[in-house]
Structure formats: structure tokens, C-alpha cells
Design a protein that fits this description.
Largest sheet: 2 strands, antiparallel
Radius of gyration: 23 Å
Shape: globular
Strand content: under 5%
Helix content: over 70%
Length: about 500
């Protein structure tokens, strides 16, 4: 019955999050403390000194990998907000000549993944929540904003996939491609769900359109990861989906809208002065403007992607990646997206650091980074002490079908309790590798990466961020954390069914 003790730290974390409603960093600290007590109390879970040193070094590098992306990513988000880039993107989306459900599908499968993949940590909600509130009632819009948080395995420029690959001992390209396969059906599911929440008149047509948008996103991810372009895969796939949506706008535009000059002339001729001024305002702000995103948006995103391309070319040409290695983990400065993110932020401000933005970024990152550090320590303790192996042994003799169904459930649990794809992978990746039958280690790592990432939107930290962005609009509509949590768990049940079916197929075919 040693597996009962082995699972106790996870039970402590889950109780802290769901029962006591404590922040993730406190839950992580409590779980790590429980693991330390068990290691001290039970000799079966003792950690040898040499393993403890190597584990500490590996944990430090994993945290460094995350911090090197989190800090510049959130700093860039502060710069983009201050310079009005996010606001420009919001206004552009509102003005697109598409129906409401089509715009929602574009936001969920295109705009939200692009922004979240670039910045991470729920930053896309600063863009999507105001846009969706303009397209739907608050109770609907906030649910749709949750579903827009679907790109997590490639969020923050693929941070979770990069770290997950290191934990699983496979290449980033291998894990990224496998994750794109295991997640392929999730994107159409969530996009259709979001579009149908708006209760369109033509439900079948809306569902087909939304499924197509989600399928384009899934295809873009698979192509990018297969080509080895893993860190910016979410950005590229989101941009590709957005481009397909804009192509649809271009086809519809001659029928869907009249030239603004004609509308303005008609409004003036009929004495509708208020509408005349409204059209003039739209023209000035680009509301009826072109289908190409505003120049500040293209400039900012282009700087980041260009920086990644420059570093990739440099390392391919033989420039040393400036890497550190210990305990099976590594950190390579020139392979991290942190430098392009920081360079883009500085270039946008003409080389001058903005202290207020830096302070705000530090404040915003502190708690997630503390939580991640706690979960990294917990994961290393459970792995190095044999707790993960004890859990694996308890499930090892289970029928194949049970193992296939348990893998996505464990991954989803890790994403829910940590509120982070990275934290979930750190917590559960070793167990998934122990559970994996011979030859299926990569696929179980992908199931973990997908399951944790696609469940983060149900976590309480993410729900609280959504409510904070919505402000009084959520309060006045009676939308609380419990309402969104119940909705999120219903969607999570659908995600589980999809991932369990994928796991069963993998076990049967591979």
C-alpha cells in the first residue's frame, strides 16, 4: 500500500486548490512539504545524496528555462498594452465583415492562440475578453474566452513542450509533432463549442465553419512541428488560421458591405447625422478599413518572429548555444525564446527599458514562478524518491484499457491543480513515462502534454483572471467562479473523452 503514501502529496495539492481555495504557489509549497515529510519518515522513499544534488541542479535549470521566457514575455505584453497594440488588435477584430459566430471562431482558433502563444500566462485574455464581450452577452462571452485558452502546449513560445521534451528524454520536434497529433481533435471541438454558445440561427452551418477553423489551426500546428519549428508553432498556426479567416472575409466583402463613402453619402442624404459621424469615426480608426491587421500589430509580432529566425539561423551556422547541462536537464540561452521577446520589447521602446513595465511584469510573474518552482521541487522529490515509481507499479498490472484511460486523466489532473501546462508536465511526466508500455513513451508524453495544456482553462487561477479582466460586466451578469468552473468541467469531460479515445487508438495501433 505504499502507493497511498506516494499519492498523498498530490491529494494535498488538490485539497488546497479545490477545498481550501488557496493560491497555486501555496498549494505547491504544501505538496512539496508533504513530500519532504514522507521522504524523511519512510526509508522506502529515501533520496540518496548524489541524486538529491543532481535533482536540485535539474530543478534549477527547469525553473531557469521558464523564468527566461516568462519575464520577457510578460514584459513584452506590458509594452504592447502601453503602446496600444492590444487595443488596435481588439478594434480590428470587431470591425471585420463577418457574422458574430464566425468572428468568435476566428478569435478562438486564430487571434487567441496567436497572442497566447507569443506571450503566455493568460495574456491573450486581455485582448479576447473585451472583444468577445462586444460580440456576446457576458455569460456567453466569458465562457468563450475560456475556450480560447486552447493553445497551451505551444503557449509562451512552446515552453511546456520544450520542458516536457527534456523531462521525457525526447527531442522537442518529436514531442511537438506527437502532441500536435494527440491534440488535433481538441481544436475543432472547442471552436465548435464556442461558436454554438452564441446560439446561431444556422447551427449546422456554424458548426461546420467553426470545425473548419479549428481544423486549420490543428493542421498548422502539425505542419510547423513536423518541420521542427516548435517554439513559434502556435504563433504561426494562429496566424495561418487568421489568414484563412481573412481570405473568407475578402470573398464575402463585396456582398457583405458597401464602400464607406456610399454609406456616408446615404446617411448624410437621409439626415441621419449620427450615423454619418459614426461612419467617419470608423474610417478614422480603421473599423471599416482593410483586412490586413494594423501596422503596430504586424510590427510587434514580426519583431519576435524575426528574432527567433535570426537565433535559429545563428545556431544552425555553428554559433554556440551557450548551454548549461545538469541532472538530465539543460538550458540553452540562444535556443530560448526569451532573447527575441526581450529584444522586441526594447526595439519597440527604441532601446530604453521601461521601469514601470518591468516592475509590473515582475509582480505579475512572481506568483506563477513561485508556483512553478514549488511544483518542480515536488515533481523532482516524487521522481527521485521513488514515489512516481510506486504509483507506476500500482498501475502497471492494470489492464491495457485502464492504463489508456488513466493517462489522459492524470494529465488533466496535473493541469487543473497546477494551473499551468509546464507545472503539470513537471508534476506528472515521469509517471506517464513509467505507465507507458514499451515503445509508447513518446505518445504518453504527448498525451500528458496535451491533457495538461487543454485543462488549464478550468483552473481557478485562470478563471479568476477572466473575471478580473471582465470586471463589473461579470458581476452584473451574475457570472461567478463557480459558474465558470462548472462550465469548464463539463468541457473538460468532453476533452477527456477525445483524449481517452486517442490513447486507446495509440495502444491498439502503435
Amino acid at each position: 500500500m505504499m502507493w497511498v503514501l506516494a499519492v498523498l502529496p498530490l491529494i494535498v495539492v488538490l485539497a488546497m486548490i479545490t477545498g481550501l481555495r488557496r493560491p497555486a504557489h501555496w498549494a505547491a509549497a504544501a505538496g512539496a512539504l508533504a513530500a519532504v515529510i514522507i521522504v524523511w519518515w519512510r526509508p522506502e522513499f529515501a533520496v540518496p545524496g548524489e541524486r538529491l544534488g543532481a535533482g536540485a541542479g535539474a530543478a534549477g535549470l527547469l525553473v531557469l528555462n521558464a523564468a527566461a521566457v516568462m519575464l520577457p514575455g510578460v514584459y513584452l505584453s506590458q509594452v504592447l498594452t502601453r503602446r496600444g497594440v492590444h487595443e488596435s488588435l481588439q478594434e480590428w477584430v470587431r470591425a471585420l465583415p463577418l457574422s458574430g459566430p464566425a468572428k468568435i471562431a476566428l478569435v478562438v482558433a486564430g487571434i487567441a492562440p496567436t497572442v497566447e502563444a507569443l506571450t503566455g500566462f493568460g495574456v491573450s485574455l486581455l485582448v479576447t475578453v473585451p472583444v468577445l464581450l462586444a460580440l456576446a452577452p457576458p455569460a456567453t462571452a466569458l465562457r468563450q474566452a475560456m475556450l480560447g485558452m486552447n493553445i497551451m502546449p505551444w503557449g509562451t513560445l512552446g515552453l511546456a513542450t520544450v520542458i516536457g521534451a527534456a523531462l521525457a528524454g525526447v527531442s522537442v520536434t518529436t514531442l511537438g509533432t506527437a502532441t500536435a497529433v494527440t491534440s488535433a481533435l481538441i481544436f475543432p471541438l472547442l471552436t465548435v463549442w464556442a461558436a454554438l454558445l452564441s446560439r446561431p440561427e444556422r447551427r449546422l452551418r456554424t458548426a461546420v465553419l467553426a470545425a473548419g477553423a479549428g481544423g486549420v489551426l490543428a493542421s498548422g500546428l502539425l505542419i510547423s512541428n513536423r518541420l521542427g519549428v516548435v517554439p513559434p508553432a502556435g504563433v504561426l498556426a494562429g496566424l495561418f488560421t487568421s489568414a484563412m479567416g481573412l481570405a473568407l472575409c475578402a470573398l464575402r466583402r463585396p456582398r457583405a458591405s458597401e464602400p464607406s463613402e456610399v454609406l456616408a453619402h446615404t446617411a448624410a442624404a437621409t439626415g441621419n447625422v449620427e450615423r454619418h459621424h459614426e461612419i467617419n469615426r470608423e474610417d478614422r480608426h480603421g473599423a471599416t478599413g482593410g483586412l490586413i491587421p494594423p501596422r503596430p500589430v504586424l510590427h510587434a509580432y514580426g519583431l519576435v518572429l524575426g528574432g527567433i529566425a535570426v537565433l535559429r539561423i545563428a545556431t544552425a551556422a555553428g554559433v554556440a548555444p551557450l548551454a548549461l547541462h545538469t541532472g538530465g536537464a539543460s538550458f540553452a540561452l540562444l535556443s530560448s525564446p526569451g532573447l527575441p521577446l526581450l529584444a522586441a520589447a526594447l526595439l519597440l521602446d527604441r532601446g530604453r527599458p521601461h521601469l514601470l513595465d518591468a516592475r509590473a511584469a515582475m509582480n505579475r510573474v512572481t506568483r506563477p514562478l513561485l508556483a512553478l518552482t514549488g511544483f518542480v521541487i515536488l515533481g523532482r522529490l516524487m521522481a527521485d524518491s521513488g514515489m512516481i515509481s510506486a504509483l507506476g507499479d500500482a498501475l502497471a498490472n492494470a489492464p491495457t484499457m485502464v492504463i489508456a484511460c488513466a493517462a489522459p486523466a492524470l494529465g488533466m489532473l496535473s493541469g487543473f491543480v497546477t494551473g499551468s501546462n509546464v507545472g503539470g508536465d513537471v508534476l506528472m511526466m515521469s509517471l506517464q513515462q513509467d505507465l507507458a508500455p514499451t515503445g509508447l513513451g513518446t505518445w504518453f508524453a504527448a498525451l500528458q502534454n496535451s491533457a495538461a495544456g487543454h485543462t488549464v482553462f478550468t483552473s481557478l487561477p485562470m478563471i479568476m483572471l477572466i473575471l478580473a479582466v471582465a470586471g463589473d460586466r461579470a458581476t452584473n451578469a451574475g457570472v461567478s467562479e463557480h459558474v465558470l468552473l462548472r462550465f469548464g468541467l463539463r468541457v473538460a469531460a468532453g476533452i477527456y473523452l477525445v483524449l481517452a479515445a486517442v490513447a486507446i487508438m495509440v495502444m491498439a495501433v502503435v
